[in-house]
Design a protein that fits this description.
By secondary structure, the chain is an all-alpha fold. About 75% of the residues lie in helices and about 0% in strands. It is built from seven helices and no strands. Helix 4 packs across helix 7 and helix 5 runs parallel beside helix 7.
């Protein structure tokens, strides 16, 4: 049985939460004020009062490459075309959507802080979709738990770092994670739908045989 309802609901809820987050935290003065204040407190605790390149500026690319290599190893180890396609779709949808949404979703000028913080964070979206894709691809059980801890840990560190260095406000980070969840859920929906379509002819043939009985044996 194709349980497409659960990932479909997850994708819808992720998209809805993403839209509500943008409208509330980015599109209103109160939301922008709270978002800015949280960023200021986090960055203040890290000793940062203006946007800075920081350590993450030097380590961003190596971290992405390391996570990508680790995720690739996890996915390839499954020896399953179905798993490979789902992971590829998760990465593709997440990265492309993050880049596109960053362009089409501006931060309105509401008199709260600078406009340089973009929604969602492309940096966080990249590490998040890689981590989520690897976690979903891993075998269920202890293997998946190990992959989750290994992959999600660095992604969470990067998420905190972009706020501490004032690259992004917290809503930008949360939006990136919601986008990663949406991409994983949508990839699962597409794969399940493809499985159903691929097996539909065989299912229809079996149904016709059940309805009309088995064909008579060949005589002569």
């Amino acid at each position: 049985m194709y349980r497409i309802d659960r990932p479909l609901i997850a994708a819808a809820l992720s998209a809805l939460a993403f839209a509500m987050l943008y409208l509330g935290a980015v599109g209103t003065p109160v939301g922008q004020f709270i978002d800015q204040e949280v960023m200021n407190r986090v960055s203040g605790a890290a000793g940062v009062d203006v946007p800075t390149r920081g350590v993450l500026g030097d380590l961003q690319v190596p971290i992405l490459l390391a996570l990508a290599v680790a995720a690739g190893a996890v996915v390839l180890a499954r020896h399953s075309l179905r798993v490979w396609v789902e992971a590829f779709l998760t990465l593709g949808v997440g990265v492309v959507a993050a880049v596109a949404l960053k362009v089409v979703l501006p931060r309105p000028e509401l008199g709260v802080g600078p406009l340089l913080n973009s929604f969602p964070s492309n940096t966080v979206a990249a590490v998040a979709v890689i981590a989520v894709a690897a976690t979903v691809a891993a075998r269920a059980g202890s293997s998946r738990a190990v992959v989750a801890l290994t992959m999600l840990g660095p992604a969470v560190v990067v998420s905190v770092a972009v706020v501490a260095q004032q690259w992004h406000r917290p809503a930008d980070v949360l939006g990136a994670w919601l986008l990663a969840g949406f991409s994983a859920a949508l990839a699962r929906v597409l794969c399940l739908a493809a499985d159903w379509v691929a097996e539909l002819p065989a299912a229809m043939t079996a149904e016709r045989r059940r309805a009309g009985g088995r064909p008579a044996a060949h005589r002569g």
